[in-house]
Design a protein that fits this description.
Number of strands: 6
Helix content: 10-25%
Largest sheet: 4 strands, antiparallel
Strand content: 15-25%
Shape: globular
Number of helices: 3
Structural class: alpha+beta
């Protein structure tokens, strides 16, 4: 029995890696700092391993004024390019730190059948600029400690115009 226990401990220890040795991110989609695209001014309040995902909070979209306010902001600031006739979905994902500041913006896009698609910069540059300028994100806490968390916005685009903002 002791021998079996000893073998199990050795097998378990050889199968695990420390976080420093792992070449994989903690969660699919985690956004590591990339000096080529991320501002050095944005700082997390807690450890990289403590950035919360959407499912850690039972709150909806945490923006001052809610989705109604976000729709208003994009309706006023986004200008539909007249010479671009693209449709699909664009997701912008980013981190909100414990001070309500945002950073590490990442964008993916697809056509309406969820196949990868690259949108014209006349659309994506506007959406990214507007999203980066948003000030009003909620500060989420766990056990009364403010947390860093991921947030995302998805834009459904038809013929270059925003027809829906999710979540």
């Amino acid at each position: 029995m002791k021998r079996f226990f000893f073998i199990c401990i050795i097998a378990f220890a050889s199968c695990t890696e420390s976080d420093e040795q792992s070449k994989y991110l903690r969660w699919v989609g985690d956004s590591e700092f990339n000096p080529k695209i991320d501002s050095g001014d944005f700082e997390l309040c807690n450890s990289e391993n403590l950035v919360r995902q959407y499912f850690h909070f039972d709150r909806g979209l945490g923006y001052k004024g809610g989705k109604k306010e976000l729709r208003k902001i994009y309706a006023e600031a986004y200008k539909q390019p007249v010479d671009v006739d693209q449709s699909g979905m664009i997701r912008i994902r980013f981190i909100v730190n414990c001070k309500g500041e945002t950073g590490r913006f990442r964008m993916i896009s697809s056509d309406l059948n969820y196949k990868a698609q690259t949108f014209d910069k006349k659309i994506t540059d506007q959406l990214l600029r507007i999203t980066q300028s948003l000030n009003g994100w909620d500060i989420h806490s766990m056990n009364e400690i403010p947390q860093d968390y991921y947030q995302y916005l998805i834009f459904k685009i038809e013929h270059g115009d925003i027809i829906e903002l999710m979540p």
